[in-house]
Amino acid sequence: NALQFAVATDFIQKGLKDLRQTLVDLAGKHKKTVMAGRTHGQQTIPITFGFKMAGFAMEVDRHIERLNDCRGRLLVGKLSGAVGTGAALGKHALELQEIMLRELKLGVEDVSTQIVARDRYNELVCVLGNIVTSLEKFATEVRNLQRDEIGEVAEAFEAETQVGSSTMPHKRNPITSEQICGLARIVRGFIIPAFENAIQWHERDLCNSSGERFILPHSLILTDWIVFQMNRVFRNLRVFPDRMMENIERSKGLTMAESLMMRLVEKGLGRNEAHELMRRVSIKAVESKKSLKEVFMEENKKLNMLTAEEVDDALNPLSYLGVAEEIVDRVVRKLGRK
């Protein structure tokens, strides 16, 4: 098993590194591409698409580290007989074991039974489950951003040959991202039976053997495929910056309520007072179907705290990105060296 694990995890590591580079490239390319942030499915203050991709790249980088750490505990073997004592190998049992495993470039199981301890396998399956969960999250983001109502990104679509639906000719479905989500759930599903297999009677029974013949190859092969497919999605992703700005503008300024609130605080209004004011202004804007600016300017006449230019600047998404660009640059520099 350990020799196969070494080869299989090498493949997955390479795929993760390729995916990380793809995400780093997207982060750098789109560090100034403004889009709406979203929490609870609702628009919030603006971010950039590059900022989102930088977060994904760092997540993949952590998985590369986790898998590498796991390999140190995973790639071990044993040559110590039926129950781990090495009785049949004589007084040189430990030396023989070390020579063989050194030749195979494997570590030594410190205390084995008839098999290598399965907590090592459990760690591998959990790491794989963690990896595919992140990729399912990324794929879900693509699927959501491709929805007609949002339309900010889209999977590549081969117009000459690809069919979106067998009955609805207009459809362009995010089928690769959907496949990633479906297969990731299968990999996570192997975690519980893998843990059950670690429970052995005494120095070993055979309950683990049948299950592991499915769990181990399938979880490794599926993870490798999911990583490959995710990289393919991002490498060919279509990004629509104009639509991103249109979606922000469709909010009629509501996404910039916090920006206006902070300007008022800078002018001396208390934080709680500024928040309550902008809360009431936001509600009135929605109910009256007016823009945030229109309603706020009515209040500002009474307050006389912000000039028209200051209001316009506060309502400009480009003026309220914080240090997003600097964060992206740091990620690009950090991961670009790996």
| Spatial separation of the terminal alpha carbons | 29 Å
Task: Spell out the helices and strands N to C.
Answer: HEEHEHEHEHHHEHHHHHH
Apparent shape? elongated
Estimated share of beta-strand residues? 5-15%
Mean pLDDT: 94
Number of domains: 2
User: What CATH architecture of the largest domain do you see?
Assistant: Up-down Bundle
- Determine the structural class based on helices, strands and strand pairing: mainly alpha
> What is the number of strand segments?
6
Query: Total number of helical segments?
Result: 13
Largest beta sheet, briefly? 2 strands, antiparallel
Q: Percentage of helical residues?
A: 55-70%
Radius of gyration: 27 Å
> Which class of the largest domain in CATH terms?
Mainly Alpha
What is the CATH superfamily classification of the largest domain? Fumarase/aspartase (Central domain)
What's the arrangement of strands in the largest beta sheet? 1-2
Uncertain stretches of 5 or more adjacent residues: none
